[in-house]
């Protein structure tokens, strides 16, 4: 044979192979994913199984079973790409289908909209679905809606909370319906998303419509939990959970193996596990959120010391958390004296917890401060840097009074904006406790209550002691403004 004949044969073989993949892509969603993404497709049992779940959902939908598929998946494992390709595949097979896609942020839906347009216009998609009527120049298209040309099917993207009144759907897809753990720990946000799902999203469903909810778990009462609770008794309901690291032997992997090592190796996951708070790790990566309380601060994490020599202390400071209202019977004020050692660990030295009237509060904090202002009595003592008071409620008057007197250095603690709520602060502070940086002494008053409040946080009746301790951790290790105040005080 001549070279030219070999070339024709080679071309024919390539065309035959591609034709095989094109035909297979019309029958199998996984084959379509592999064909479309080649040569960048990563093969893995998880990818295969995820494709199978999507395809089984579609078959159930065609059979009129009203399927509900819930997939709990760790972050950055290709779930959004899978979802986008599934929407494209369904649209190519059934251009009459109306799909609505919802996510927590408008830009995520807009990105999916743009990605779908690229897929629809790609040569590979057009080979698989040559009769699909989509043109970038024809039909109604905008950042939130794609109308298929000459077919009644469509794609609409919205947010979990966005308006879809007047719309209808055959397939509804919710991809990452809540932003993150701060949003998930807000009962108001959770309730808002759940109400939208129930009163807006579900009311758009046609008689035989199906729903897919895919995302990362953040909270025991997050929207995924809401959907599971509402639909778990339905015949065509399926709930699939993929932990990042297997907790037991499974069909495709043994206990301790990573889910998708090509994207997230076991070494990477184990390193992240060390960094994450256990509650966050269990929710975000293992898809197993735990109830609030009893998990943010574990009792065994607190360190204990028997003796702290004066020469081992770098400086001291006092933190005060005053009652919301002076005359409120149930509110306590708490003062804590902490020392930062030369080993950079944080030591609790003393504590006061009581209810005070305004004049008593000022007298008590002054007396407590003076009792630990040792440098005035001994030259070789560590420095007392000052008093940190939360700038709220009765603390405002205390700060003003002490600043007017000018005898005690006072540093207001302002709390506002993202990350200022107590649960978020607890998740920020807890790793320092777990790593052994915070040490207590058994003779410090109320230390047993500190342990109890921390173990039950945020569900204990009181949280004034652990809240004050969190402030001390923030001042020492987290809050840059407070750290700057400490350094300034040391220089003075």
What does this structure look like?
This protein has helices at 3-27, 29-37, 45-62, 79-93, 106-121, 123-128, 181-184, 187-201, 223-231, 266-275, 278-285, 358-372, 393-405, 422-434, 447-456, 464-478, 480-491; strands spanning 68-72, 98-103, 141-142, 145-147, 154-159, 169-175, 205-215, 237-241, 303-304, 313-321, 333-341, 346-354, 383-390, 410-413, 438-440. The protein contains 17 helices and 15 strands. Helix content is 43%, strand content 18%. It folds into two domains: 12-285, 3-Layer(aba) Sandwich (Rossmann fold), CATH 3.40.50.300; 302-491, Nucleotidyltransferase, domain 5 (2-Layer Sandwich), CATH 3.30.420. The protein is of the alpha/beta class and 492 residues long.
Oligomer: single chain
What portion of residues is helical?
40-55%
Write down how many β-strands occur, each being a DSSP E stretch of 2 or more residues.
15
Q: Please state roughly what percent of the residues sit in beta strands, choosing from under 5%, 5-15%, 15-25%, 25-35%, 35-45% or over 45%.
A: 15-25%
Anisotropy-based shape = elongated
| Class derived from helix and strand content | alpha/beta
Mean of residue pLDDT values: 87
Largest sheet: 8 strands, mixed
CA(first)-CA(last) distance: 92 Å
Gyration radius, in Å:
30 Å
CATH class of the largest domain: Alpha Beta
CATH architectural category of the largest domain: 3-Layer(aba) Sandwich
Could you say what the CATH topology of the largest domain is called?
Rossmann fold
Strand order of the largest sheet: 3-4-5-2-6-7-1-8
**DSSP helix count?**
17
Query: What's the structural domain tally?
Result: 2
């Amino acid at each position: 044979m001549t070279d030219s004949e070999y070339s024709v044969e080679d071309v024919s073989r390539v065309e035959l192979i591609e034709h095989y993949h094109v035909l297979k892509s019309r029958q199998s969603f996984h084959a379509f994913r592999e064909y479309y993404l080649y040569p960048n497709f990563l093969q893995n049992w998880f990818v295969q199984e995820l494709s199978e779940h999507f395809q089984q959902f579609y078959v159930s939908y065609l059979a009129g079973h009203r399927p509900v598929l819930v997939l709990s998946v760790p972050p950055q494992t290709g779930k959004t790409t899978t979802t986008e390709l599934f929407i494209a595949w369904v649209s190519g097979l059934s251009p009459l289908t109306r799909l609505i896609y919802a996510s927590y942020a408008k830009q995520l839906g807009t990105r999916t909209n743009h990605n779908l347009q690229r897929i629809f216009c790609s040569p590979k998609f057009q080979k698989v679905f040559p009769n699909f009527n989509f043109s970038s120049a024809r039909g109604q298209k905008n950042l939130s809606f794609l109308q298929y040309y000459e077919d009644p099917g469509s794609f609409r993207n919205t947010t979990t909370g966005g308006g879809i009144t007047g719309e209808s759907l055959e397939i509804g897809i919710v991809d990452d319906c809540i932003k993150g753990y701060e949003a998930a720990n807000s009962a108001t946000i959770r309730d808002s998303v759940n109400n939208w799902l129930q009163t807006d999203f579900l009311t758009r469903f046609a008689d035989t419509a199906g729903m897919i909810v895919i995302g990362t778990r953040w909270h025991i009462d997050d929207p995924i939990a809401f959907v599971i609770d509402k639909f778990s008794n339905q015949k065509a309901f399926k709930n699939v959970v993929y932990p990042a690291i297997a907790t037991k032997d499974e069909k495709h992997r043994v206990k301790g193996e990573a889910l998708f090592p090509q994207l997230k190796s076991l070494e990477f996951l184990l390193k992240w596990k060390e960094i994450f708070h256990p509650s966050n790790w269990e929710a975000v990566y293992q898809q197993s959120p735990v109830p609030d309380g009893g998990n943010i601060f574990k009792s065994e994490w607190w360190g204990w010391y028997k003796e702290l020599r004066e020469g081992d202390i770098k400086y001291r400071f006092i933190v005060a958390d005053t009652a919301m209202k002076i005359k409120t019977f149930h509110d306590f004020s708490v003062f804590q004296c902490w020392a930062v050692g030369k080993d950079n660990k944080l030591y609790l030295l003393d504590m006061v917890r009581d209810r005070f009237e305004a004049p008593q509060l000022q007298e008590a904090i002054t007396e407590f401060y003076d009792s630990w202002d040792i440098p005035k009595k001994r030259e070789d003592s560590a420095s007392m840097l000052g008093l940190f008071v939360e700038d709220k409620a009765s603390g405002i008057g205390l700060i003003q009074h002490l600043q007017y007197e000018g005898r005690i250095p006072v540093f207001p603690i302002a709390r506002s904006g993202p990350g200022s709520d107590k649960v978020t602060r607890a998740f920020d502070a807890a790793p320092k406790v777990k790593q052994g940086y915070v040490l207590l002494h058994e003779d410090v008053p109320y230390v047993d209550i500190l342990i109890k409040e921390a173990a039950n946080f945020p569900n204990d009746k009181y949280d004034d002691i652990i809240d004050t301790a969190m402030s001390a951790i923030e001042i020492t290790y987290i809050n840059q403004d407070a750290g700057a105040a400490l350094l300034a005080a040391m220089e003075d």
